[in-house]
Specification:
With about 400 residues, this protein is α/β, with parallel strands linked by helices. It is built from 16 helices and 15 strands. The protein folds into 2 domains: about 120 residues, Aspartate Aminotransferase, domain 1 (Alpha-Beta Complex), CATH 3.90.1150; about 240 residues, 3-Layer(aba) Sandwich (Aspartate Aminotransferase, domain 2). The protein has a 7-stranded mixed beta sheet with strand order 2-10-9-8-7-3-4, sandwiched between helices. α9 links the parallel β8 and β9. It is globular and about 60 Å long. The mean pLDDT is about 95. The chain binds glutamine. Glutamine binds next to loops.
């Protein structure tokens, strides 16, 4: 009897096609081979000491018990003010803003609260790898459509754009949600105002909701503006806007973000949120709320990262990699098909393994952002790194 009790019963996986995320796998490989990790997206430099001081002060002031389920009012108020100031839309901090344990939880909770079994959800690939499993957990069907690519003279991808024709064809009465992401991970593409107008036109006479992943909202280059759904009343009325303090304040490990959505949608979001994480750690919320009073850190972030992007691109220009556009995010994609070595024929994931173990620089295969990997010989580097890290990585890449 005892023996049987110890046997774990068989069960069928809720996510049969899912393994460990590529970010975790590549970071582990980089650590094992002491490679410079330009794979997983996170900064290798410290966050603000002032921010740490504010969190520390909150802890010492005994702000360590459960905060309100929806997040502390001070933080929701500051988020509401920031969105209003930058994008013009007023979200009621009590009824329309919820503090989440980072962007990924905001996305999962959004999907769980509005997708029912059989509903279709459109994602635009390459797409962040949590979208599809979130939809599967809700019982929804993922409809993946690929970004359009623009090819350079050498026939290789230079940049991406929204596939409006395919998007419009994919919409039908079963479509419940469209997940969009700007600035876009992994391509660095940034939506333009015309893109938001186009999307609004497509959904305006439907019941389709939008999940807008804007976690890189403060990293937009070359004088482009971040096009939040909060700039567009018709879209704001049907959107869950997701953002992340981890990205903005160089604290990816803190896992604090927010979701802004009209009250009717927020009511449903919170029903799931309360039984998902219930609430998000208290002292970080207090520290971030105070830090948000100063708009400088987030307003200066684009210039800060643009300098890194430019430095990294300049160095990459002295390699045999072909550079793709990067208008936003802290990612730079490159094409490796012209390296003139046998490894240039490898598939993206094999190439990234080779680059990590043999060259000592970790990257992420863009194929990991597709269900049916279209192998385009494009990999993603993260340039949210100290100057010296980038110099060391470039040195290795220039030797190939
Ligand atoms: N968003 C980050 C990236 O794309 C990683 C997040 C994660 O590791 N889950 O690299």
């Amino acid at each position: 009897m005892k023996r049987f009790l110890q046997q774990t019963p068989e069960f069928s996986s809720r996510l049969p096609d899912v393994g460990t995320t590529v970010f975790t796998v590549m970071s582990a490989l980089a650590a094992k081979h002491q490679a410079i990790n330009l794979g997983q997206g996170y900064p290798d430099f410290p966050c603000s000491r002032e921010l740490i001081g504010l969190v520390n002060a909150a802890m010492l002031a005994d702000q360590n018990q459960y905060p309100p389920m929806i997040g502390i009012p001070e933080l929701r108020n500051e988020v509401s003010k920031k969105i209003k100031k930058l994008y013009g839309h007023s979200y009621d901090p009590d009824k329309e803003i919820t503090i989440t344990a980072g962007g990924t939880q905001g996305i999962l909770t959004t999907v769980l609260c509005c997708v029912s079994p059989g509903d279709e959800v459109i994602v635009i690939e390459p797409a962040y790898d949590s979208y599809r499993p979130s939809i599967e957990l809700a019982g929804g069907l993922t409809i993946g459509i690929s970004l359009e690519t623009r090819l350079g003279n050498n026939g290789r991808i230079v940049s991406y754009s929204i596939p409006w024709g395919k998007l419009s064809q994919a919409i039908n009465t079963k479509t419940r949600l469209i997940i969009i992401n700007t600035p876009h991970n992994p391509t660095g593409m940034v939506w333009k105002n015309a893109d938001l107008n186009h999307l609004a036109d497509l959904v305006k006479n439907t019941n389709i909701l939008i999940c807008s992943d804007e976690v890189y909202e403060h990293m937009v280059y070359d004088n482009l503006e971040h096009q939040s759904v909060a700039r567009h009343p018709l879209l704001a009325a049907r959107s869950f806007l997701i953002s992340s303090f981890g990205k903005t304040y160089h604290v990816t490990g803190w896992k604090v973000g927010y979701v802004a959505a009209p009250s009717m949608l927020t009511d449903e979001f919170r029903k799931v949120h309360q039984f998902n994480v219930f609430t998000v750690n208290t002292p970080m919320q207090h520290g971030i709320a105070k830090y948000l009073l100063n708009s400088k850190p987030y307003l200066e972030l684009s210039a800060f990262y643009q300098a890194k992007r430019d430095h990294f691109r300049l160095g990459l220009a002295n390699t045999k990699f072909n550079l793709l556009h990067s208008e936003g995010t802290y990612f730079q994609c490159v094409d490796y098909s012209n390296l003139g070595i046998p490894e240039a024929k490898l598939k993206e994931d094999e190439f990234c393994r080779w680059l990590t173990t043999e060259i000592g620089v970790a990257a992420i295969p863009v194929s990991a952002f597709y269900k049916e990997a279209i192998d385009s010989s494009v990999i993603r580097f993260c340039f949210a790194k100290q100057e010296q890290t980038l110099i060391n990585a470039l040195h290795k890449l220039q030797k190939i």
